[in-house]
Specification:
By secondary structure, the chain is an alpha/beta fold. It is 41% helix and 19% strand. The chain is built from 15 helices and 16 strands. The strands form four sheets. It has an eight-stranded parallel β-barrel, surrounded by four helices. It has a three-stranded antiparallel β-sheet with strand order 1-2-3. A three-stranded antiparallel β-sheet has the order 7-8-9. Helix 7 links the parallel strand 10 and strand 11. The chain is globular and about 60 Å long.
């Protein structure tokens, strides 16, 4: 399902073949939490923005409209009108983000809904059944993400429980994919490496989960409190233990600089809410650095957001106009900036792939690593 085309150092250029299309890697997955990109974009918009994979949130869709409702409507592809690959997270991140509303046990986790407070139980089997109802292309295993820094003993016990949960996820996924009424009977399961910032736990955990020969592997539990230097150190420790013939996904990361650094260290796939979240607050990424469209200096600036960008926003609208929209509270400002940022991220990954194809990734890295995160 994954073909490694070439390496440049540890950096990898590959293709991931899925039941819903082939993904060119390295790739960025665009986050459509509830089935849509925040900022007023639809699946049809994503087609124009070089999107390859859409990521949806298991926990949120379980609450609204309900995974059984989505199944009755034909699954996420039919529901959202996105016909490419879709990855659903497992709900495990909510074990971390809803820390004050949870109770973790061997069977699974009891949550309090952030909407109305009603109690929800989710374990490996429940997560797999929800994701099967959603009929995503790729289902993520149910895990626990611990906050960094974490106590060593707790991180060790959490890792061990996550491995036990992974075996349960695989057994349930195999069962669900054998049922005649399952929408996507070729749903893929990816495991998640955990272990906080402890290299020995990370390595041991990776060696354990690779034994299951899953469809892909993610590095989870990073960008949740540790420094970027610690994150890169953990990636470097885990990478040699990851299967060479499977895709590698760094969850929840990150900035353009993070992506370049992680590609250099052997990561294939990324996701992050940053391009859409920052855009909704007037922060746009360009090939010269980051702009804040609320700044008064853009009041009379008739240039596009990025003069080297050919996204729909940059083709038609000026910095001055978008600055005015933000100052006036117009929703169009968010849509235009989200459009640009998503296009920028997908173009960034496209150019990374091109540099790997041509054997000059290191040059591309050197030319962009500092510039892309500069505030201008």
């Amino acid at each position: 399902m994954y073909k490694l085309i070439r390496n440049e150092g540890t950096a990898r250029r590959g293709e991931l073949v899925t039941p819903h299309g082939t993904v060119q890697t390295p790739a960025f997955m665009n986050v459509a939490t509830c089935g849509a990109i925040k900022g007023g974009l639809s699946a049809l918009d994503l087609k124009e923005l070089k999107c390859q994979v859409q990521l949806c949130n298991t926990y949120h869709l379980h609450l609204r409209p309900g995974d059984e409702t989505v199944k009755k409507l034909g699954g996420l592809h039919r529901f959202t009108r996105w016909d490419g690959p879709i990855l659903t997270d497992s709900g495990g991140f909510q074990v971390f983000s809803l820390a004050k509303l949870r109770n973790i046990q061997e069977e699974g986790v009891t949550f309090a809904s952030h909407i109305d407070g009603h109690r929800i139980f989710m374990g490996p089997e429940e997560s797999m059944r929800i994701q099967s109802n959603l009929a995503s292309t790729i289902a993520m295993a149910f895990d626990e993400c611990v906050e960094n820094p974490a106590e060593y003993d707790y991180a060790r016990k959490s890792c061990q429980r996550t491995v036990r949960w992974l075996y349960r996820c695989k057994a349930e996924m195999d069962r669900l994919n054998s049922l005649p009424d399952t929408i996507n009977r070729k749903q893929m399961l990816w495991g998640i490496n955990q272990g906080s910032t402890y290299e020995d736990l990370r390595i041991e955990n990776m060696r354990q989960i690779r034994e299951l020969d899953l469809d892909g592997y993610a590095i989870g539990g990073l960008a949740v409190g540790e420094s970027t230097e610690e994150m890169y150190r953990i990636i470097e420790a885990v990478e040699p233990e990851m299967p060479k013939d499977k895709p590698r996904y760094l969850m929840g990361v990150g900035t353009p600089e993070n992506i370049l650094e992680a590609v250099k260290r052997g990561v294939d796939i990324f996701d992050c809410v940053m391009p859409s979240r920052n855009a909704r607050h007037g922060h746009v990424f360009t090939w010269e650095g980051c702009r804040n469209l609320f700044n008064a200096k853009y009041t009379l600036d008739e240039a596009p957001l990025d003069e080297s960008c050919d996204c729909p926003t940059c083709r038609d609208f000026s910095r001055a106009y978008i600055h005015h929209l933000f100052k006036s509270g117009e929703m169009l400002a968010m849509r235009l900036c989200v459009t640009h940022n998503i296009y920028f991220y997908n173009t960034l990954l496209e150019r990374i792939r091109k540099s790997l194809d041509e054997g000059n990734f290191q040059e591309f890295y050197n030319n962009n690593i500092r510039k892309l995160d500069t505030r201008i």
